[in-house]
Amino acid sequence: QVQLVESGGGLVQPGGSLRLSCAASGIIFGIRAMGWYRQAPGNQREWVATIASSGSTNYANSVKGRFSISRDNAKNAVYLQMNSLRPEDTAVYYCTAGAGSWGQGTQVTVSS
Fold it and tell me: Residue 44: CB partners within 8 Å, gap ≥ 6?
């Protein structure tokens, strides 16, 4: 019913930038809060950022000042702009519309 498709991941050097996208379907997008999570091998999935339907945002302390979440309701899409990337940012990044809905994820690798 709910489909979330992440894209935009890849290999980047430390200090570089990437922009992730999440396309949503099967939901009334404009009234839903959206979020980004990430999971590295051997680690638990951790919360990264959230954007409310109003546009209000919240970030994990580890990414504040470096990452920015945004949404485009006309495109049913949510984005994560990642700047000043660090090796510890390496993970599979997932978007969510809440209620246990997840995409398949997109791999981000930060390495020199």
Answer: none
Residue 85 exposed, middle or buried by CB count within 10 Å (0-12, 13-18, 19+): buried
Tell me if 23 sits within 8 A of 5, measured CB to CB: yes
> Which amino acid is it at 66?
R
Candidates 103, 81, 105, 96; CA nearest to 18 is: 81
Which whole-number Å values give the CA distances from 90 to 31, 49, 50, 75, 109, in the listed order? Answer: 31, 16, 19, 27, 5
How do strand 3-7 and strand 46-51 relate by DSSP bridges?
unpaired
User: 92 is written with which tokens?
Assistant: 């599979």
In degrees and rounded to multiples of 5, residue 3 shows phi and psi of -125, 130
Q: How confident is the model at residue 97 (pLDDT cuts 50, 70, 90)?
A: very high
Question: For position 73, what pLDDT does the model report?
Answer: 94
Assigned token pair, 66: 């470096």
